[in-house]
Amino acid sequence: MITVRRAVDGDLRAVAEIFAHYVDGSTATFEIIPPDVSQWRQKLDALADQGLPFLVAEIDAEVVGFGYAGPWRPKPAYRHTVEDTVYLAPGWTGRGLGKSLLTNLMADSARAGATQMIAVIADDGDDSSVALHRACGFREVGRLPEVGHKFGRWIDTALLQRKLDPVP
């Protein structure tokens, strides 16, 4: 049984480990150095201060994924637009966890006053993130060629967007 809930301080070690897997071994993120638990605590606190969601997915009390919605851009006119981030622990993909996280992020973001959600996805040959977002109603709205450089190669990003449904 999947439980999606708000992240708490005790989840951050698992969050850091999950994300480090992608930093160290993939181009899914353009981070080069994995953030430590204290950096994740700062992110959790900053998002909470802004009323934005930081969620975890757990199965049998094990955190197997996380996601959050952060500000798209810092300028005030963008305050109703958020960017989503979703990562799953190795071995837990393809089980509906990403969709559960993203669906909950969209609803919580709408409750927080967001009206648009943006996904910035590395186009590294793995289409799973694009497929997840399309399954949740996102559409591709742009592409930025060769904006990331990691592991000795240039990587494009795809921009996907979805209007959020109002949630009571």
Automatic annotation (TrEMBL):
<dbReference type="InterPro" id="IPR000182">
    <property type="entry name" value="GNAT_dom"/>
</dbReference>
<dbReference type="GO" id="GO:0016747">
    <property type="term" value="F:acyltransferase activity, transferring groups other than amino-acyl groups"/>
</dbReference>
<dbReference type="InterPro" id="IPR016181">
    <property type="entry name" value="Acyl_CoA_acyltransferase"/>
</dbReference>
<protein>
    <submittedName>
        <fullName>Phosphinothricin acetyltransferase</fullName>
    </submittedName>
</protein>
<dbReference type="Pfam" id="PF00583">
    <property type="entry name" value="Acetyltransf_1"/>
</dbReference>
<feature type="domain" description="N-acetyltransferase">
    <location>
        <begin position="2"/>
        <end position="165"/>
    </location>
</feature>
